[in-house]
Amino acid sequence: MNKGLSLIILAAWMWSRYGGLKQIEEFGPHGESLLEYAVYDALQAWFEHMVFVIRKEFEEAFVSKFEAMLEACPKFSLVFQEFDPDFGFAETKTREKPWGTLHATLSAQYKIDGPFAVVNADDRYGTQSYTLLAQRLRMIQPDQALLVWYILNNTLSDYGTVNRGVCAVEGTALQHVEECYKIGVDAWVIKDKEGRVLTWNEIVSMNFRWFHQDFFKQAHPLFVQFVLDHSQGAIAEMVIPAAVDELIDKELLSCEVITSPDSRYGVTNPDDKPKVQQAFDAMIKDGVYPENLRTK
Asked: Which of 65, 174, 218, 230 could in theory staple to 255 by disulfide, Cβ–Cβ 3.0 to 4.6 A?
């Protein structure tokens, strides 16, 4: 029997470039956030369990802010990612930032008993993408994963740099993801922090990933080793793509790369906000979303 689908929504971090919590920033006509649109999209695809990864210190504000959204979920859980968790197997120094998206995902493992997807709370991926992959996710095998990809040019900011995972793909099989930092346009040339020149058409990951529940036990030893190797580091992070890459290299996992039928919207810098608001206004006009998300 297939388990119900769960969605892990990564909402624990603050982004200095944006200047605050993007997860609660208002983009819809009635103050709706990108997080609320993500949950709406997932509900249309019959996801049954929403797992929100947040910081413990924001719990009360989160529940108050998103009361209507939480009431709309058939089932939801709150789990916490902290800067300085007591891992038990390693003594770590005081951290300046969390341990990364893999740690955030593993924080939710005891709430998940079936196939699941992982998304950022501050990206809009689209209803069609959830619906397209939901049926495939129900049939996913322990050694399989799915990744929805986007074109680099469609994920850049007009007002600053972005970080992206650039994918190497053979056919539809993911081979490797390389994290490229501070990608921006300079005189019509796209470069990253290292000065590497990129084209406009690289396939990039926006952290829209789909897994069998066995991913937790596959990835956990990798994270344990990462913590042991970086126990005295204040900022080292292990991201989901790094874990997937390692599992692919060890032939424990294969990852299929799938084109999204939707437009992705998100904000990296505050000046991105008006463009995203205009996009939601247009989608509401076209009937993609209701005019007032909180009444549905």
From this structure: 174
